[in-house]
Amino acid sequence: MPRRFDVLSRITALDPVADHLEIYRLTATVEFPWDMNQALSFALFRTYAVPSIGELLARTGEFTERVQKRYDDTGLILDAVLEHGPDSGPGRAAIRRMNQMHRSYDISGDDMRYVLCTFVITPIRWLDTYGWRSMSGTEKIASAEYYRALGRRMGIPDIPSTWQEFARVHDAYEAEHFAYSEGGRAVADATLALLGTFPPHDRLPAAVVRQTSSALMDDALLDAFRYPRPNPVLAAATRAGLRARGRALRFAAPRGEPFFARQLPTIRSYPDGYDISALGTFPGGCPVPHGAAAAASATRH
After folding, report:
1. How far apart are the C-alpha atoms of 16 and 38, rounded to whole Å?
2. DSSP 275
3. Contact yes or no for 12/27 (Cβ under 8 A)
4. Would you call 298 helix, strand, or coil by DSSP?
5. DSSP label at 30?
6. Nearest of 112, 206, 212 to residue 153 by alpha carbon
7. How many CA atoms lie within 13 A of 126 on its CB side?
8. What is the distance between the alpha carbons of residues 95 and 277, in angstroms, rounded to a whole number?
9. 274-275 and 297-298 beta bridge pairing
10. Phi, psi torsion values for 268, nearest 5 degrees
11. How far apart are the C-alpha atoms of 111 and 138, rounded to whole Å?
12. Is the pTM of the predicted complex or chain greater than 0.85?
């Protein structure tokens, strides 16, 4: 019978640079699938507080009018790279789709680098606070290497070299650029409204969902969206509940099989399956690319 720290022992025996894909996949899909989904969703949410990002997303209408599909497409595209590897057919198709979308808009290299930083740093900090354990040093290095490799394939300039440098760039960018914008606030509001449709939030009043979500935001993020401070009692209870979950999981049976984002019940746009090459936006009415390889398709059951 597998023991709670068997996967960590396997991870720490690997090379965090050479084996970064295997390590990150184990961390994200076996050790912490729920936590990583929460953290990466929150990482994207943080980016809305940078006006150049929030305003662009609002102008496209994708994150306000079609928020469920955009949530699904983002998760499925990133999931394909993680599950199959960036050099696989599905991985290449997913990265190609990301690059096609990003190159259709005027996005600065600095903004792209910051978004990449959030994917490295937000999960580390989430697990430090709410996980059943923190990321090991091996996992932090592997996470940085994984996103360095992804960032290079996306053409992002001046990618940080270490997870510590990712943290410094992340924090400096937020300190300089976090500010209120109408577009950023609209995208944030639409995202929180979508969260309210996910179980178990769909059984709660919208005001309670907003309060519990705000409890996980730092003051700089709340100020950037001009959100009020959450009720302190409810905020404390929310954070305590997440910490209690983490402590309980420490003594739970370990997961035996990986769990990927495509298996999430909150991804609801493609009940009959999906083609990676057809995900996302096609600005200007661009058609879905022809000749997509069969390997670039995935079906969710």
Report:
1. 24
2. E
3. no
4. strand
5. I
6. 112
7. 22
8. 10
9. antiparallel
10. -125, 0
11. 27
12. yes
SS3 274: strand
Successive 10-residue mean pLDDT values, the chain, 301 residues: 92 98 98 97 97 95 88 95 97 96 94 98 98 98 98 98 98 98 97 90 86 96 97 95 97 94 93 92 58 41 38
CA distance 169 to 163: 10
- What is d(CA 106, CA 129) in angstroms, rounded to the nearest whole number? 36
Strand partners, 274: 298
Preceding amide of 200 cis, omega within 30: yes
Sort 2 into a burial class: Cβ within 10 Å, 0-12 / 13-18 / 19+: exposed
CB of 182 within 8 A of CB of 136? no
SS3 85: coil
Nearest to 292 by CA among 85, 97, 74: 97
Residue 38 exposure: Cα atoms within 13 Å on the Cβ side: 16
- Do 238 and 216 contact (CB within 8 A), yes or no? yes
Q: What is the DSSP string of 220-285?
A: HHHHHHTPPPPPHHHHHHHHHHHHHHHHHHTTSPPP-S---GGG-TT--S-TT-EEGGG-S--GGG
To which residue do tokens 């907003």 refer? Answer: 210
Query: 178, exposed or middle or buried, with CB in 10 Å at 0-12, 13-18, 19+?
Result: middle
Question: DSSP 3-state assignment of 99?
Answer: helix
Q: In sequence order, what are the beta bridge partners of 298?
A: 274
